[in-house]
Recover the amino acids of this structure.
C-alpha cells in the first residue's frame, strides 16, 4: 500500500507536462502503428538528371536490393543515402559523401558513434555530412 | 435566548446549504463542459471542485470525470491515474468494479497484456465480484484480441452466449492468418515459394530467378573445377540471395498478418456495436 | 419570530440562486487559492490561466509575476523573458530582472546591454549577488573570460570558483581539430585524417580499402592489364576522394560534438545550481 501511494505521488508530477499545452479530443486508434518510413519508389523529379538517378536507384532496389536480404546496417541505406545526399547538395558533394559512407559501411572495427534507431539500425543521416551544416550553437 | 440560538443554527444551516449548492453546481458545470467535448476545461473545473470539496464528497464522481476526460483526449496514463483515485474513493462494490474495469479497458488499449491479465485474475479471485465473472471474461477476450492472440480470444468468447459475433470474427481471423514458419519452410525447399504463399508473386519470381541463375553459375564453376570462382559466386552472391529469399518469405508473412490484425481491429472499432475498450 | 426566520432563510437562499456560478468558487480570493494550488501541482498552464483571469479584474504585480513563473516553468523561455522584462520596474522588479537574465541565458541570448543597466539597480544584496554570478556565467559561456583574467570574486564559494575557472578555460580555448589538417593528412596517407579526429575504425578501414584497390591497380598495370588497372585505380581514387572529404567533415563534426559536450556540461552544472537564482523567488510551495 505504501508503495502504491508513493507511486501515485510520483506519477502525479510525471504527468504534469501533459497539460502544459491545451489539447483536444483525440480518438484512440485500435490499430497498431505500422512503420511506413521505407523507401520511396516514386520517380517524381525536378530535372532529367534527378529522374535518371532515381530510375537507376529504383531499378537497383527492385531487381537486387529488395530480394538479396537485409545487408546494410545504416538508416538510410547506402543507395538512399546517395540519393538524399545529391538532392541536399550537388552531384560532386553527394558522390563524395557516398564514397565516404561506403568506406564507413566496410568498417568492421568499431561502430559505437551512431545512435541506434527503433528498427535497430545505425542512424546516419546525410545532413550530418553536408558542408553546409550550420554550427549548432551559432544559430 | 432560545430564538437567537435558533437563528444562529439556521444561518449555519443555510450557509452549509449554500456551499453544498455551490459544489453541486460546479459539478454540473464541469459535466456540461465534458458534454460539450471541452475536455481540457472540464478537467480544470473538476479540479476546482476537488480543491474546494474539503469533505471529499465528490471524490468518486469528479475523479471519474477527470479520468474520462483524459481518456477522451488520448492521455491514457493520466486517465489511469485518476481512475485509480476514483477507485480509492469508491465506497461500494459496484462503483469499485466499474472503475477497475475502466482501468482494465485502458490497459487493453495500451496493449499492456500481462498487466491486464494480472488485474483480471485478481478481480476473478475477489469475492465481491463473484457475480460479474462473465463481464470479466468478456474483457479478457478483448485483452487477447489486442494481443493478437485470436485463438484464445475465440475460446473465451465461445463460453459467453452474448459474444457470438466476436467469437466468429476471431475464428475468421485465425483462419485468414498466414503461418510464418510455413512460409519460411517452403522457401527453404523452393526459393520464392513462401512469397507465392503470401501473394507476393513478383518478389517470388525474382527470388526464384536469382537463385536458379546463381545456383547454376556456382555449380557450373565447380564442375569446371574453377573452385575459386565457385566459392566466390556461391558465398558472396548465391547465399546472399538465398538468405534474402528466406527473410523475405518471413517478412511478408509477418506484414500480411499485421495487416489482417489491423483491418480487424479497425473494423471492430468502427462497426462493432457491443462494449468496447 | 416566524417571520424573521422566514426572511432570513430567504436571504440565505437568495445569493445561492443568483450568484451560484460567478461568485461562489470564483471570487478573486478563491481563484487565487486554487491557482496557487495548481501552481504547486505543476499544472502551470491552468494556474496561469487562473492568474490571468484574476489579473483582468484586479491588477496586481504579484499575479503578473506568477504568470511569468508559469511560463518559465513550462520552459516557454521566449515568452517568459519578455514577460519579466515588462516587469523590470514593477514592485517585483529585482526578481524580474534576475529572471529576465536567467531566461535570456537559457535562450542563449546575449543581453549584455540590459544586464549592464540592471546591475546597479539592486537593493537586495542576495539578488544582486545572484545577478552578478549569472552574468559572469554568461560571459564564460560566450568565451569572453580569459583564464588569466579570471579572478573569482567573493561572489562564489571556493568549489564553484574552481569549477567555473575550468569552464572559462575550456570555453576560451576549446579543444578543436582543424578540418583542413584532417583533409591534408588523408590526402597524404589514406585514413590518416580520420585517425587524427579519433575515428580509428573508419581510418583503418579507409587505409585498407584504398590500399587494396591501389594495389590491385598496380598489380594489373604490372601484368599489362591496362583496362582493369584503370578500373581499380578509379575505384581507389573514388574511395580516397571520399575519405579526404570525410576527414574534413569528421574534424568539423568533432568540433561540433566537443562544443556541444562542453555546453551540456556547463548547462548541467548551472542547472544543479539553479543558475545561481535563489529557489524562493521562483514560487514557494509547501
Amino acid at each position: 500500500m505504501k508503495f502504491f501511494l508513493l507511486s501515485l505521488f510520483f506519477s502525479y508530477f510525471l504527468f504534469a507536462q501533459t497539460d502544459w499545452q491545451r489539447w483536444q479530443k483525440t480518438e484512440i486508434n485500435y490499430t497498431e502503428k505500422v512503420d511506413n518510413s521505407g523507401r520511396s519508389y516514386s520517380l517524381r523529379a525536378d530535372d532529367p538528371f534527378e529522374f535518371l538517378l532515381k530510375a537507376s536507384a529504383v531499378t537497383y532496389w527492385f531487381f537486387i536490393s529488395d530480394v538479396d536480404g537485409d545487408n546494410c546496417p545504416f538508416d538510410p541505406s547506402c543507395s538512399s543515402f546517395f540519393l538524399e545526399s545529391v538532392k541536399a547538395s550537388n552531384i560532386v558533394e553527394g558522390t563524395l559523401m557516398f564514397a565516404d559512407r561506403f568506406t564507413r559501411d566496410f568498417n568492421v572495427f568499431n561502430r559505437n558513434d551512431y545512435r541506434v534507431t527503433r528498427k535497430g539500425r545505425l542512424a546516419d543521416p546525410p545532413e550530418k555530412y553536408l558542408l553546409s551544416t550550420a554550427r549548432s550553437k551559432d544559430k | 435566548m432560545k430564538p437567537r440560538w435558533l437563528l444562529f443554527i439556521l444561518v449555519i444551516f443555510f450557509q452549509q446549504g449554500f456551499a453544498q449548492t455551490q459544489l453541486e453546481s460546479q459539478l454540473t458545470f464541469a459535466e456540461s463542459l465534458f458534454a460539450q467535448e471541452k475536455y481540457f476545461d472540464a478537467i480544470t473545473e473538476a479540479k476546482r471542485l476537488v480543491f474546494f470539496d474539503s469533505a471529499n464528497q465528490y471524490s468518486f464522481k469528479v475523479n471519474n470525470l477527470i479520468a474520462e476526460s483524459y481518456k477522451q483526449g488520448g492521455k491514457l496514463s493520466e486517465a489511469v491515474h485518476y481512475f485509480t483515485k476514483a477507485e480509492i474513493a469508491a465506497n461500494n462494490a459496484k462503483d469499485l468494479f466499474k472503475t477497475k474495469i475502466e482501468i482494465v479497458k485502458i490497459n487493453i488499449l495500451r496493449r499492456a497484456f500481462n498487466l491486464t491479465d494480472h488485474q483480471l485474475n485478481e478481480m476473478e479471485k475477489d469475492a465481491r465480484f463473484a457475480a460479474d465473472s462473465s463481464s470479466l471474461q468478456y474483457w479478457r477476450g478483448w485483452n487477447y484480441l489486442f494481443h493478437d492472440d485470436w485463438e484464445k480470444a475465440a475460446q473465451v468468447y465461445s463460453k459467453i452466449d452474448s459474444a457470438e459475433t466476436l467469437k466468429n470474427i476471431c475464428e475468421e481471423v485465425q483462419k485468414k492468418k498466414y503461418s510464418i514458419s510455413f512460409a519460411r519452410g517452403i522457401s527453404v525447399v523452393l526459393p520464392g515459394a513462401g512469397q507465392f504463399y503470401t501473394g507476393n508473386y513478383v518478389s517470388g519470381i525474382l527470388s526464384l530467378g536469382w537463385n536458379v541463375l546463381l545456383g547454376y553459375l556456382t555449380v557450373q564453376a565447380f564442375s569446371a573445377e574453377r573452385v575459386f570462382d565457385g566459392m566466390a559466386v556461391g558465398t558472396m552472391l548465391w547465399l546472399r540471395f538465398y538468405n534474402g529469399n528466406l527473410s523475405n518469405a518471413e517478412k511478408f508473412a509477418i506484414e500480411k498478418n499485421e495487416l489482417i490484425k489491423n483491418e480487424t481491429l479497425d473494423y471492430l472499432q468502427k462497426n462493432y456495436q457491443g462494449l468496447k475498450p | 419570530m416566524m417571520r424573521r426566520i422566514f426572511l432570513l432563510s430567504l436571504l440565505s437562499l437568495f445569493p445561492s440562486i443568483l450568484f451560484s456560478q460567478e461568485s461562489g468558487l470564483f471570487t478573486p480570493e478563491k481563484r487565487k487559492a486554487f491557482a496557487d494550488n495548481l501552481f504547486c501541482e505543476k499544472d502551470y498552464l491552468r494556474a496561469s490561466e487562473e492568474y490571468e483571469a484574476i489579473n483582468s479584474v484586479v491588477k496586481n504585480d504579484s499575479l503578473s509575476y506568477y504568470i511569468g513563473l508559469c511560463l518559465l516553468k513550462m520552459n516557454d523561455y521566449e515568452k517568459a523573458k519578455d514577460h519579466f522584462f515588462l516587469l523590470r520596474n514593477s514592485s517585483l522588479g529585482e526578481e524580474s530582472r534576475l529572471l529576465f537574465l536567467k531566461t535570456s541565458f537559457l535562450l542563449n541570448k546575449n543581453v549584455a546591454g540590459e544586464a549592464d543597466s540592471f546591475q546597479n539597480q539592486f537593493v537586495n544584496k542576495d539578488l544582486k549577488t545572484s545577478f552578478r554570478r549569472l552574468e559572469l556565467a554568461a560571459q564564460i559561456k560566450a568565451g569572453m573570460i580569459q583564464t588569466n583574467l579570471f579572478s573569482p570574486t567573493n561572489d562564489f564559494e571556493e568549489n564553484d570558483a574552481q569549477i567555473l575557472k575550468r569552464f572559462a578555460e575550456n570555453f576560451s580555448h576549446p579543444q578543436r581539430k582543424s578540418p583542413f589538417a584532417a583533409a591534408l593528412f588523408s590526402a597524404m596517407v589514406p585514413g590518416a585524417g580520420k585517425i587524427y579526429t579519433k575515428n580509428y575504425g573508419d581510418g583503418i578501414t579507409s587505409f585498407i580499402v584504398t590500399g587494396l584497390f591501389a594495389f590491385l591497380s598496380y598489380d594489373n598495370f604490372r601484368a599489362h592489364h591496362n583496362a582493369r588497372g584503370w578500373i581499380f585505380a578509379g575505384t581507389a581514387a573514388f574511395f580516397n576522394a571520399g575519405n579526404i572529404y570525410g576527414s574534413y567533415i569528421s574534424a568539423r563534426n568533432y568540433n561540433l560534438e566537443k562544443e556541444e559536450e562542453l555546453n551540456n556540461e556547463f548547462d548541467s552544472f548551472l542547472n544543479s545550481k539553479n543558475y545561481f537564482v535563489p529557489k524562493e523567488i521562483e514560487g514557494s510551495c509547501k
About this structure: The CA atoms of residues 186 and 194 of chain B lie 6 Å apart.
